[in-house]
Every structure is written in structure tokens, then in C-alpha cells.
């Protein structure tokens, strides 16, 4: 499948700001399931410099050292994808799987999350336990926007019984680690068809390390392993490491942000 991605983020502050610095993790890396045909990240009309962070993510730096009331980041590109049943092979991996066994404040397991992991652990082997965990999450969490935020932990989302893709990913990662399997947060894009483009185009899921297979993706919010409709862009221990935009601004207390993301299938040329 050949997917066209357009991702526009606009920042505004009525009082103005004198300085802005942002890290952007919006660029897919190639692996056996995806090939980048072309990709561009521009900030206020100019191509932005990039580097690889400690997780191997392509990270762009967007800065403004002048007074401004608005800023804009535009991402556009084409990626060829294929279904690998969720298995991620051939991706840059600067860190060993064991690094992703550690807990974080957003993924720490409380008693309820540990109990969920124990229930998933009744399956006979590691891969079966992860699939069972994904099914259990679909039963315990309802997809509902507006009830959680970027600082909501896995334990809080599970206790509330609802959240968005980010929360499903955090709960899955926390429970998988409680099972003794390294797991990580993944950010990217999803082509959900014309009817679901707006809400689902920017997406998050999880990956867990399985011996003899390597990293395997699990999208608990949809109850499937990622297919050719997914574009994988960033990884981290949790959302804080893989967020598409993180930054600081000086002198702006009333800032707002608008995000528009479109993912569409295009014909190969």
C-alpha cells in the first residue's frame, strides 16, 4: 500500500512569544514493513535540521529566536507499506530489548494492572500471552476521547475504564513489562479509510519483544497487530519519549494548538 501523509500543526499565542524550541518526532524509519518514498518536515516554510535521538528516532529541531504570535510545522510524505503480521524486522535498533523492560511513571503497574498481567499470563507461551492481553484490554477499556490527557498514567486510565489510543498503548506496555516481556510505545499514522481519516490518522500502539520473532506490534485500541495501513514513526519507553511534538516557549501563557492530519492511499507511479 502506498500512503500519503499530511500533518500540519499550528501554534498561536495572542500575547506573543520571544522564543520557541521544539523537538519533532514525525518521520518514519524504514524496516521490512515500510519504505519511505519521500518525506519533508518544514517549520514556518523552511526545511528543518534533524538528528537521531537515543531511540533511533529521526528528530527535527524547530526553533524561533524572534518575537512571534504563531508558528507552523508542516509534514508531508509518501510511504510504501506491507503487512508483516505486526513483526518489525530490519529497523534501526540502537538499544537492546532489555532497555525496554524498565518502568516509567506513565506505565508503572499498580495492583489492578498487575492483576491484568497475571490474567494474560495464563496463556501457554509469550506470544499467546500478549494476544490475550490485547483481548483483555479491549474488554476493560472503552475508547473515549476527552477523558484522559498526555499526563494520564496507565494505572489511571485502567481505573477509569476509558481512554484513547495513547492510554491503550500505555496499559499494554505496563502489563507486558509486568509479564517480564520488554515493551515500548509507538507513535505514527493510521489509514482508517475516508470515514475515519480525521480522528484516527495520528495514532499510537505498542510493541513487545518476543524471542525468535523480535519486536511485534499490538494495537490494543483496535484489537489487531499493525497492518499495511500503519505508518510507524517513533518509539520510546512511553509517550514522553515518542511524542510527535515536545517543546518550550518563552512568554506565552495563552497558547493554543491546532492539528490536522490526513492519511490517504495513493496509486503507485
Which fold name is given in CATH as the topology of the largest domain? C8orf32 fold
Q: How is the main sheet built?
A: 5 strands, antiparallel
CATH first level of the largest domain: which class? Alpha Beta
Measure the end-to-end span.
12 Å
Protein structure class = alpha+beta
Report the CATH architecture of the largest domain.
Roll
Quaternary structure of the protein: single chain
Task: Categorize the overall geometry.
Answer: globular
Low-confidence parts: 195-199
Radius of gyration: 18 Å
Overall tally of domains: 2
Q: Treating each run of at least 4 consecutive H or I residues as one helix, how many helices?
A: 6
As laid out across the biggest beta sheet, the strand order is 4-3-7-1-16
**Strand percent estimate:** 35-45%
Amino acid at each position: 500500500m502506498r500512503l500519503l501523509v499530511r500533518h500540519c500543526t499550528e501554534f498561536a499565542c495572542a500575547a506573543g512569544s520571544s522564543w520557541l524550541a521544539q523537538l519533532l518526532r514525525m518521520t518514519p524509519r524504514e524496516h521490512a514493513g515500510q519504505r519511505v518514498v519521500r518525506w519533508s518536515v518544514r517549520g514556518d516554510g523552511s526545511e528543518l535540521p534533524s538528528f537521531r535521538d537515543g531511540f533511533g528516532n529521526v528528530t527535527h529541531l524547530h526553533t524561533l529566536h524572534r518575537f512571534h504570535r504563531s508558528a507552523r510545522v508542516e509534514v508531508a510524505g509518501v510511504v510504501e507499506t506491507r503487512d508483516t503480521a505486526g513483526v518489525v524486522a530490519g529497523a534501526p535498533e540502537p538499544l537492546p530489548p532489555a532497555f525496554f523492560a524498565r518502568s516509567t511513571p506513565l506505565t508503572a503497574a499498580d495492583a489492578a494492572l498487575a492483576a491484568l498481567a497475571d490474567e494474560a499470563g495464563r496463556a501457554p507461551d509469550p506470544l499467546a500471552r500478549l494476544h490475550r492481553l490485547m483481548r483483555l484490554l479491549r474488554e476493560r477499556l472503552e475508547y473515549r476521547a476527552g477523558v484522559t490527557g498526555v499526563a494520564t498514567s496507565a494505572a489511571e486510565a485502567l481505573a477509569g475504564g476509558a481512554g484513547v489510543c495513547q492510554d491503550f498503548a500505555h496499559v499494554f506496555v505496563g502489563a507486558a513489562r509486568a509479564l517480564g516481556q520488554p515493551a515500548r510505545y509507538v507513535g505514527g499514522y493510521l489509514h482508517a479509510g475516508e470515514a475515519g481519516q480525521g480522528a484516527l490518522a495520528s495514532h499510537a500502539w505498542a510493541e513487545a519483544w518476543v524471542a525468535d520473532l523480535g519486536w511485534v506490534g499490538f494495537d490494543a485500541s483496535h484489537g489487531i497487530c499493525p497492518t499495511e495501513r500503519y505508518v510507524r514513526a517513533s518509539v520510546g519507553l512511553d509517550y514522553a519519549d515518542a511524542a510527535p511534538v515536545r517543546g518550550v516557549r518563552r512568554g506565552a501563557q495563552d497558547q493554543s494548538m491546532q492539528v490536522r492530519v490526513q492519511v490517504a492511499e495513493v496509486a503507485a507511479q
